[in-house]
Amino acid sequence: xxxxxxxxxxxxxxxxxxxxxxxxxxxxxxxxxxxxxxxxxxxxxxxxxxxxxxxxxxxxxxxxxxxxxxxxxxxxxxxxxxxxxxxxxxxxxxxxxxxxxxxxxxxxxxxxxxxxxxxxxxxxxxxxxxxxxxxxxxxxxxxxxxxxxxxxxxxxxxxxxxxxxxxxxxxxxxxxxxxxxxxxxxxxxxxxxxxxxxxxxxxxxxxxxxxxxxxxxxxxxxxxxxxxxxxxxxxxxxxxxxxxxxxxxxxxxxxxxxxxxxxxxxxxxxxxxxxxxxxxxxxxxxxxxxxxxxxxxxxxxxxxxxxxxxxxxxxxxxxxxxxxxxxxxxxxxxxxxxxxxxxxxxxxxxxxxxxxxxxxxxxxxxxxxxxxxxxxxxxxxxxxxxxxxxxxxxxxxxxxxxxxxxxxxxxxxxxxxxxxxxxxxxxxxxxxxxxxxxxxxxxxxxxxxxxxxxxxxxxxxxxxxxxxxxxxxxxxxxxxxxxxxxxxxxxxxxxxxxxxxxxxxxxxxxxxxxxxxxxxxxxxxxxxxxxxxxxxxxxxxxxxxxxxxxxxxxxxxxxxxxxxxxxxxxxxxxxxxxxxxxxxxxxxxxxxxxxxxxxxxxxxxxxxxxxxxxxxxxxxxxxxxxxxxxxxxxxxxxxxxxxxxxxxxxxxxxxxxxxxxxxxxxxxxxxxxxxxxxxxxxxxxxxxxxxxxxxxxxxxxxxxxxxxxxxxxxxxxxxxxxxxxx
Length: 726
Hints:
Elements: H1 3-14, H2 23-31, E1 36-39, H3 48-56, E2 60-64, H4 68-81, E3 88-91, H5 97-108, E4 114-117, H6 119-122, H7 125-132, E5 136-141, H8 161-168, E6 173-177, H9 182-191, E7 198-201, E8 209-215, H10 219-228, E9 234-238, H11 242-254, E10 259-262, H12 268-279, E11 285-288, E12 301-306, H13 313-320, E13 330-336, H14 338-348, H15 353-371, H16 376-383, H17 398-401, E14 406-408, H18 410-422, H19 429-437, H20 442-446, H21 463-475, E15 479-482, E16 488-491, H22 493-500, E17 506-508, H23 533-550, H24 554-557, H25 560-569, H26 574-577, H27 585-605, H28 618-634, H29 639-646, H30 650-662, H31 670-673, H32 679-691, H33 697-703, H34 710-725
Parallel strand pairs: 1-6, 1-7, 2-4, 2-5, 3-4, 5-6, 8-13, 9-11, 9-12, 10-11, 12-13
Antiparallel strand pairs: 14-17, 15-16
Helix pairs in contact: 2-3, 14-15, 19-21, 23-25, 23-27, 29-30, 30-34, 32-34, 33-34
């Protein structure tokens, strides 16, 4: 077809002046009746590659698409460019008998150029028989990665497509996907029996996207603070479970953010409504499982947040790719902790062994990506089989923006390559890490590798370090992971050359995320600001003056952790004060006013940007337990019995009572104390607390030289605080 004709057709049907990227060559290839494989990142204009040839060809093009929402969008878009409603139809389970009859009538009369079908509909005998009787121009498979077990969204029904196409008609096939590693690409071609296809592969680089990974700590607070700074911008937050989607959407709404949930558990009408509201900008943020967004074509999504790390790098690429499709800014933020990867590994149990191995390797890749300190863009593109010079990243990922320290690693890389050769290229990464760091585990002893000369040669470094060496050697092209054998490391030609003649190799110091366990991260950013020492000193002075005035120890008013929390949260109302650690309603009402006034004034004078307090959903459940505990104490039940009923030790029950009393609720446990301590002893301890300068029980223990146990002092402390403070 003449060059002029295609351009004219594009202008006449779609109103565009010119083709994007390789579109024109792809369309020409399809029109020439050749099998075609298109790998083009989201936003590159994939659908045009089959829509225009379908309009220009005789007969109907069959487009296989996995999602009903996506089909509907595409059909609507096609009808908009044509005056004729019947130019495009879809055939899926949502249609009535009458609607199906109309679709078939339009195809038979030659009006319909594009028929979108779900793979399930294509397997039905009556549909196959019907399609055999009409002229088919070509088959198009959108989201072709669904064919491959190595793809991020594998669907078994896609594996049968070739066989069904063969039954219907021997016309060319065009397969299209936005993500395909070399392995997935090969798998798709083999399955569709189109190894002869012309391959059109665009670069996977999206240079307007900024990639950032954060440790998963205070994640809800961080998300809310971030979105508040993005006022009026559209964003998507991905979570792995429906439950988390619902909880987070509710939490965002409570905190004044215009958000809605989207997941497969919602009824069809709600899903469609939420998606439309997002498209129409009636809502800013969609919180979704990965079921969302396949069919979303909103060009100005400005941020994509992963509350949970996805199951593969392909999913990550696909989901982050929904940001900035218009070429404008797009920020991709993911929260990561290794525990989530372990959780996803557990879900693989019970699946067929091959599927488990594939799943594990995909998880391994995403964990490597999250933990790496190499340019993230380079790593993503390497995964998709593309070479990339990180100089071009232009600080558009966190690792390039804040580069990590580098050290000479020539010796370590050489040890690793020697080990791979010594063990005859038969092992996966974690085996070499154990082998080099001298760790004796069941795998090492089973192969008797602890008896080999190189065993433990790098024992001055741990497995985590060696994992980084493996990862960076793979990205540098010295080693490759053999996918057929589930990630066994093999030497590449470049690796063999390097072994013979090692040159300088700068190892990037990796972030030590793996070692961070959830509880051990002390983050100054809780609430979004560093601790405010100036205000803390003012609050301590205020507390002292009130304690003198009321003649009670300062800690009876507010304890130290409460004052510190005020310096992070800046509460400026009595209601906000109740969100502060250790401050209940009673205490806020009794002592709060002067503190709130001081903080309010301080915030205004110093122009403080307050992290707004979050209304956490978990509060509700806790209050039920608290009420039950107080009721049981009112009934004078022994603390042992209360604990037994709730599956807790007496110590845990006492801790809970202490927390209730500290936050300002009066609790009378005299009935329990009277059984343990006589009146004189009680008076002696009570008097000590009235004059004490500190609420530290260790100091009390030392003062009484061990006459009273810590438990007795703690119970008396509860009695004292209950009567004095509340």
